[in-house]
Amino acid sequence: MIYLFILGSFLLSALLGLIVIPNILFISYKKRLFDKPDARKVHTLPVPRLGGVSFLPVILISTCFWIGLLYYCSLSDQPLTTPDVACSFLFFSCGSMMLYLVGVADDLIGVGYRYKFAVQILASLLLTFMGEYFHTLGGLCGLSYLPRWAGIPLTVVIIVYITNAINLIDGIDGLASGLSCIALAVLGTMAIVHEQYLHAILALATLGILIPFWFYNVFGNARRGHKLFMGDAGSLTLGFILSFLVIHLGTLTPSADGKSGQQMVLAFSTLIVPLFDVVRVVLHRLREGKNPFLPDKNHFHHKLLRTGMRVRGVLITIFSVALFFIVFNLLLAPFVDITWLLVSNIVLWTLMQWGINGAIRRANIEK
């Protein structure tokens, strides 16, 4: 019966999305709130960038409704009403609302990256208050349990890292939302398997609003006023929710020796593409003597476009890469040490980037 509540959170979010998103499009065109094209962007027509304004309100409405109904019907034998779980979600709601408001402000008038970083750090600290931080690295590099003084700063860094990775990968239609859909589907499944039903409801509610947005974002016609972007309000909200789920599910039920690597590997595998791409881009900018916080056209999708691929082909390729890493790590995690598994992921990613660089050189020669 509880699975119907989880499915209900998905369906309610999707339904609300179908109602809210067209109204956001109408207001955006009425007030001319557009993301205008420039040399760094792929789109050539002005497109509304307020799609992400719908995310957090819909997610909270759906999540709170179904969790409240779950309590009312007394169908869960899981101690969801413990103070720690309740406070964890309350602090999560505070942090997500802070980032959401900063994202809306950035989409409307622009916000400096230093201010956004400060708010991200504060929101990240809120999550750690009730124990949502890394107590262990699952045996990575031989490290097992982490003391509080090390686990909390590491968690803050990872939350800021994931949040900005989702923001930075949002470069072509459907990419950030599509990768987030894949991650949420896997994380939601993990939550159900481990009977973390409250987190499953959150994951499926988030997935629900992303599905209608993704179709508007990818298949919407800008000339007819049916296309929109998520903007920072959407990407910051998604990044924070994914961070919350990855940390909770990745550190769930550690083993006696602290090497709970399998859970952590699978949780982080859902976000390998945006996480690895951020590291590569930052290293490239530093090597070129550029500010690592300023945008450029060297992200994964930009490189694939330079090989001559079309936008839809790039989208399918990146989704395939994301699914490959998830399946690869899922199959090998029970048999391979987490450290060597990370090394193998880095090697595969590096070889793939070298192959893409070669394809870019060949495309340039043919021109």
Describe this structure as you would to a colleague.
This protein is mostly helical and 367 residues long. It has one domain (2-366). Helices cover 70% and strands 1% of the residues. It has 13 helices and two strands, in the order αββαααααααααααα. It has a two-stranded antiparallel sheet. Helix 5 packs antiparallel against helix 8 (231-250), helix 6 packs parallel to helix 8 (231-250) and helix 7 runs antiparallel to helix 8. The radius of gyration is 20 Å and the shape is globular. 44% of the residues are buried.
SSE diagram, text form:
Blueprint: H1 2-31, E1 34-35, E2 47-48, H2 55-73, H3 83-108, H4 113-128, H5 148-168, H6 175-193, H7 197-219, H8 231-250, H9 261-269, H10 272-287, H11 300-306, H12 311-332, H13 338-366
Helix pairs in contact: 1-2, 1-7, 2-7, 3-4, 3-8, 4-5, 5-8, 5-10, 6-7, 6-8, 6-12, 7-8, 8-9, 9-12, 11-12
Q: Which tags fit this structure?
A:
2 strands, mainly alpha, single chain, 13 helices, 367 residues
- Please indicate the percent range of residues in DSSP E strands (runs of 2 or more): under 5%
Write down how many β-strands occur, each being a DSSP E stretch of 2 or more residues.
2
Radius of gyration: 20 Å
Largest sheet: 2 strands, antiparallel
Structural class: mainly alpha
Low-confidence segments, given as residue ranges, are 255-259
Order of helices and strands: HEEHHHHHHHHHHHH
Instruction: List the strand order in the largest sheet.
Output: 1-2
Provide a concise account of the structure shown.
The protein is mostly helical and 367 residues long. 70% of the residues lie in helices and 1% in strands. About 1% of the residues have low confidence.
